């Protein structure tokens, strides 16, 4: 009798587990440009908005015309550090890459590799000096020196009361002349979110 | 002795004043609601220029170096900043202000001077999928964004 009950309970638990494991999950492909906010945290939409605002701002301001007019060549820019001082983990590279791409595509700003990838390139070039044929070796000390460095900060403020929360992100990017340390452009973007749980 | 509470609507003058103030506030409320609706439609998506009704708008010389062609992108954000990119990789960015059907774009001058310029647009039709505007500055012309 006890064995039968035990078997029935085991069977029931098994059935419940089986049904639970087969719970339906719906996955839908959506347009990457579509705005979907789930938790209210920093997401792809915020990143895209920052990238678009910053690159349009940077490329429409007079620093570019002034430099091109004076030097008769497009400026060379290197992306430096973007410090995250916000309360969340924010990957600055997602919008920095967009800005770099737009700089390069526009043909009005030249971009050189940042320190991490530059080291990799230098390693490869050093290897070539030993291992590559003379005809295909790339020469040393032929890198393009940057005129400007792009630096930035991400800050956030949070105001919360019971189930309501207001988060304000402020992203500042600035372009600094490497030789004179003069700031030629400062771009900022604010994103304010009201979250109600 | 007990005093009876006074109903303000019993007095004709108070009632008339209340009615008038209510009537006067109605258009303002409707205007505010319309403005919010237009702003939310404008900021909802990125607009791509699909049709330029006047040829002059696509000419570099006539447009002072910033021509408008099919495929240009324009977007408005909720913080009242706008972005415009044309097919020559020329960029325009700045603030936008809406006044009824009039849309004012404040942006930097397209030279090395520190000067702000304005572009005036008039919204002819705005739906979820279409933004039909008329450029009010010379050369004037209609533009269809989708």
What are the main properties of this structure?
heterodimer; A: 197 residues; alpha/beta; Rossmann fold; 5-stranded mixed β-sheet; 5 helices; B: 146 residues; alpha+beta; Lipocalin; 8-stranded antiparallel β-barrel; 8 strands; elongated
β-strand number of chain B? 8
CATH C-level category of chain B: Mainly Beta
The chain-level mean pLDDT of chain B equals: 87
Rg of chain B, nearest Å: 23 Å
CATH overall fold name of chain A:
Rossmann fold
Largest sheet of chain B: 8 strands, antiparallel, barrel
- The SS-based structural class of chain A is alpha/beta
Large-scale geometry of chain A:
flat
Provide a short characterization of the protein structure:
Chain A has 197 residues and is α/β, with parallel strands linked by helices.
Question: What does it look like?
Answer:
The complex is a heterodimer of chains A (197) and B (146). Chain A has 197 residues and is an alpha/beta fold. Chain A contains 5 helices and 5 strands. Chain A has a single domain (43-196), classed as 3-Layer(aba) Sandwich (Rossmann fold). With 146 residues, chain B is α+β, with helices and mostly antiparallel strands. Chain B has a single domain (39-145), classed as Lipocalin, CATH 2.40.128.280. Classes of the chains: A alpha/beta (197), B alpha+beta (146). The interface between A and B is medium-sized, with 22 and 21 residues.
Secondary-structure topology with pairs:
The complex is a heterodimer of chains A (197) and B (146).
Chain A: H1 2-21, H2 44-60, H3 62-71, E1 76-84, H4 93-106, E2 110-112, H5 115-131, E3 148-161, E4 164-177, E5 183-196
Helix pairs in contact in A: 2-4
Chain B: H1 12-43, E1 46-52, E2 73-76, E3 81-85, E4 91-99, E5 102-108, E6 116-126, E7 131-135, E8 141-145
Antiparallel strand pairs in B: 1-2, 1-8, 2-3, 3-4, 4-5, 5-6, 6-7, 7-8
């Amino acid at each position: 009798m006890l064995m039968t009950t035990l078997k029935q309970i085991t069977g029931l638990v098994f059935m419940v587990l089986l049904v639970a494991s087969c719970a339906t999950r719906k996955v839908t492909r959506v347009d990457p440009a579509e705005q979907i906010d789930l938790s209210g945290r920093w997401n792809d939409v915020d990143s895209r908005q920052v990238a678009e605002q910053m690159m349009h701002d940077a490329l429409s301001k007079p620093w570019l015309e002034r430099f091109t007019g004076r030097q008769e060549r497009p400026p060379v820019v290197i992306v430096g550090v973007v410090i995250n001082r916000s309360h969340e983990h924010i990957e600055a590279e997602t919008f920095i890459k967009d800005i770099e791409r737009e700089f390069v595509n526009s043909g009005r700003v030249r971009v050189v590799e940042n320190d991490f990838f530059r080291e990799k390139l230098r390693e490869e070039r050093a290897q070539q000096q030993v291992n590559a044929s003379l005809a295909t070796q790339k020469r040393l000390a032929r890198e393009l020196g940057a005129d400007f460095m792009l630096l930035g900060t991400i800050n956030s403020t949070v105001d919360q009361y019971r189930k309501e929360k207001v988060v304000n992100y402020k992203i500042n990017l600035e372009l600094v002349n490497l030789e004179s340390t003069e700031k030629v452009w400062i771009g900022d973007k604010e994103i304010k979110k009201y979250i109600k749980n | 002795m007990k005093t009876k509470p006074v109903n303000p609507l019993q007095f004709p003058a108070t009632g008339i004043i209340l009615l008038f103030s209510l009537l006067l506030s109605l258009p303002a409320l409707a205007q505010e609601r319309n403005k919010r609706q237009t702003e939310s439609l404008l900021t909802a998506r990125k607009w791509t220029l699909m049709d330029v009704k006047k040829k002059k708008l696509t000419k570099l010389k006539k447009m002072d170096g910033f021509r408008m062609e099919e495929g240009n992108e324009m977007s408005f954000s909720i913080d009242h900043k706008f972005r415009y990119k044309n097919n020559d990789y020329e960029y325009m960015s700045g603030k936008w202000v809406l006044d009824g059907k009039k849309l004012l774009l404040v942006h930097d001058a397209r030279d090395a001077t520190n000067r702000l310029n304005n572009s005036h647009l008039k919204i002819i039709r705005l739906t979820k999928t279409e933004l039909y505007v008329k450029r009010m500055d010379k050369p004037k012309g209609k533009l269809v964004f989708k």
